[in-house]
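Sequence, please.
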């Protein structure tokens, strides 16, 4: 008889098993139940594929996603001369195809039958399965069983009842890549496989680097820089909504990154084509909702980016696990903002209370992970109930918190206070109550972030354990009891603070980039042009446009067009004069232009701008345009102002004539012609309430259109 390794080589072409594959397969072949926890990329699918081919009968594989089933069936068929060796049975098949599948299974040609949980529970399916020889039942993505998991599917909860209705003696193998101790316990109880052998691989992926960056107005530029620094390498970007996927994929393509979208709203053929193109390296980046990548075997994904905050640590871990499956480097980058978390919490408010509470708890863990200063790898391993071994892993280069450590504080006294007040009598405490019930002075109580950080460190370092039977509560561990007997120094670092506004930082960064000497020259040139044209300087170009030139140094008309507030009209009228000055300045001062990304945005704003211009051309009153667009009148005026400032013609005489008489218009024309300030508040002060802000803004739009466009 051939050995197991011979069977592996014969059917899959591999010479050796990975991780725990061999003992898992042997346990199943011996007729025992198995529970497998193996991180993404560990080779879970082989654990049921090889036994299915070896054993008599058909193995039923329950899988949550059609794309996942298709991918696995294609892979199995490619390694086997029998085209009927694997089939799917799901809602995509027509009546004729279903009959063909059932015939192949009945005739013993099919070794693996992939079934969606919804299909499994149908009477037609159970009646059919009662008549065929079943080798075993595999439940892939078994975390979907648990209400405490990140991807609960009610249909998964009914699987045990369906198994019992077919044959109570069917052996079961349940497999998942992500399961906290609480979820593991729930899966075993629900499937009634307490006699199963547990096979648990380490959750540590030493080749992955974890990083969290703040999400702000500069994120798109930062994202493109990151991708371009990984030129020619494959990456996945995860977004939460279909619209995010479409918009971001379009933006990447416009900025020289070959990208394709993937989400459930795309036509099935387009979705499959985009997936195949990514697998064949016909594009660098796939931008997708979380469904993408489930079971997709692309080993050389070099980075996984979360453009939005993930809904859970389990989801985050599973998705990041698609990087570096070949053992090569993988960079896992999350853009984090609490605004994203709040949006997800609002969506959860529509769910029933039990689901909402679990969802919020999972989200809080994501926030905690992002904001914590603890090693990201340590945090992840602790979350999944695994002890971090500092003697095995290199601390300094596994995540951003380890690579760039913060100042440490000795929190020994505060930790003793925390443990003594809550855990002396071995009782459990809800985490939300820990800080509330501490005997603290008002001053100490204000610093809640410190106590939250201390609690997180205590959990990750194993002094306090989460209670798996009562989610949200914690209790002291044996290590914690030992610490209270023999306390030693306990160092922590303050959490990352993503709550601060990034705008000030951006303004400071911009200010430091402004070339003051060039700015002086640009102001002089603008004034010279203004004098020649008998116009105020701001009618030529606004100050923020000049500032933009001082750190982008445009030397071609194309680059000049990318300057903030410059449209086609300004390019034609003034482009060459400003470019000539900037070129000469660069040469005189030996300046090397920065290769900073200049973000090219999609046409969505352009189409809105065009629609607005068309409405004005049709002489639709501005208040009606404001109402139909669903924007405040002041916002509309700002949009019209930016169109005119950029050099585009916009005739609003029809509206101005309705609100201002000839004398008023003449008075305002004289004022704006002589004024050197573009600040509307100066005009309000000058006229001392004679005109309101809206009237002044409206006339200034007309003035700029008449004199500078």
């Amino acid at each position: 008889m051939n050995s197991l390794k011979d069977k592996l080589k014969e059917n899959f072409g591999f010479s050796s098993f990975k991780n725990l594959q061999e003992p898992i397969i042997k346990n199943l072949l011996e007729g025992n139940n198995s529970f497998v926890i193996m991180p993404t990329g560990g080779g879970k699918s082989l654990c049921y594929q090889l036994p299915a081919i070896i054993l008599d009968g058909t193995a039923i594989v329950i899988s949550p996603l059609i794309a996942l089933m298709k991918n696995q069936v294609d892979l199995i068929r490619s390694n086997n001369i029998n085209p009927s060796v694997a089939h799917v049975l799901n809602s995509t098949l027509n009546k004729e195809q279903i009959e063909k599948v059932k015939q192949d299974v009945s005739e013993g040609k099919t070794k693996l039958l992939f079934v969606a949980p919804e299909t499994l529970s149908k009477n037609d399916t159970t009646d059919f399965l009662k008549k065929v020889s079943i080798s075993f039942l595999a439940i892939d993505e078994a975390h979907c069983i648990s209400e405490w998991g990140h991807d609960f599917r009610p249909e998964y909860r009914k699987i045990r009842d369906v198994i019992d209705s077919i044959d109570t003696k069917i052996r079961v193998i349940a497999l998942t890549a992500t399961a906290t101790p609480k979820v593991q316990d729930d899966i075993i109880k629900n499937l009634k496989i307490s006699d199963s052998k547990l096979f648990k691989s380490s959750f540590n992926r030493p080749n992955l680097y974890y990083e969290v960056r703040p999400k702000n107005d500069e994120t798109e530029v930062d994202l493109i820089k990151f991708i371009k620094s990984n030129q020619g390498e494959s990456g996945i970007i995860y977004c939460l909504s279909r619209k995010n996927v479409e918009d971001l994929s379009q933006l990447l393509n416009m900025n020289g990154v070959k990208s394709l979208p993937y989400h459930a709203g795309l036509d099935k053929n387009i979705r499959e084509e985009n997936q195949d193109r990514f697998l064949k390296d016909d594009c660098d980046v796939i931008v997708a909702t979380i469904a993408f990548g489930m079971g997709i075997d692309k080993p050389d994904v070099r980075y996984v980016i979360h453009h939005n905050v993930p809904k859970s640590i389990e989801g985050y871990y599973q998705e990041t696990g698609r990087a570096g499956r070949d053992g090569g480097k993988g960079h896992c980058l999350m853009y984090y903002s609490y605004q994203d978390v709040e949006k997800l919490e609002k969506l959860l408010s529509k769910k029933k209370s039990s689901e909402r509470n679990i969802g919020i708890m999972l989200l809080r863990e994501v926030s905690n992970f992002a904001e914590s200063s603890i090693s990201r790898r340590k945090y992840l391993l602790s979350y999944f109930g695994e002890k971090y071994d500092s003697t095995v892993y290199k601390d300094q280069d596994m995540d951003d918190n380890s690579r760039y450590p913060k100042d440490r504080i000795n929190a020994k006294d505060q930790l003793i206070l925390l443990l003594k007040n809550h855990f002396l009598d071995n009782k459990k405490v809800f985490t939300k109550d820990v800080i509330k019930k501490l005997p603290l002075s008002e001053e100490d109580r204000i610093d809640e972030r410190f106590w939250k950080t201390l609690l997180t460190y205590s959990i990750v370092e194993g002094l306090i354990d989460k209670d798996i039977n009562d989610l949200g509560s914690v209790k002291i561990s044996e290590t914690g009891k030992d610490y209270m007997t023999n306390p030693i120094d306990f160092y922590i670092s303050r959490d990352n603070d993503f709550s601060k506004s990034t705008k000030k930082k951006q303004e400071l960064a911009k200010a430091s980039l402004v070339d003051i000497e060039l700015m002086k020259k640009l102001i002089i040139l603008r004034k010279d042009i203004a004098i020649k044209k008998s116009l105020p300087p701001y009618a030529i170009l606004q100050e923020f446009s000049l500032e933009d030139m001082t750190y982008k140094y445009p030397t071609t008309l194309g680059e000049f067009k990318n300057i903030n507030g410059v449209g086609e009209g300004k390019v034609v009228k003034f482009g060459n004069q400003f470019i000539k000055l900037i070129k000469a300045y660069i040469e005189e001062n030996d300046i090397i232009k920065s290769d900073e990304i200049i973000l090219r945005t999609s046409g969505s704003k352009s189409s809105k701008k065009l629609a607005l211009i068309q409405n004005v051309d049709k002489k639709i009153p501005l208040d009606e345009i404001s109402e139909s667009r669903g924007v405040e009148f002041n916002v509309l005026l700002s949009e019209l102002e930016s169109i005119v400032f950029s050099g585009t013609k916009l005739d609003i005489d029809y509206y101005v004539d309705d609100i201002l008489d000839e004398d008023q218009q003449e008075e305002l024309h004289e004022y704006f012609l002589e004024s050197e300030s573009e600040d509307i508040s100066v005009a309000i002060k000058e006229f001392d309430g004679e005109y309101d802000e809206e009237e002044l803004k409206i006339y200034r739009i007309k003035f700029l259109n008449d004199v500078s466009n």
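The radius of gyration is 32 Å.
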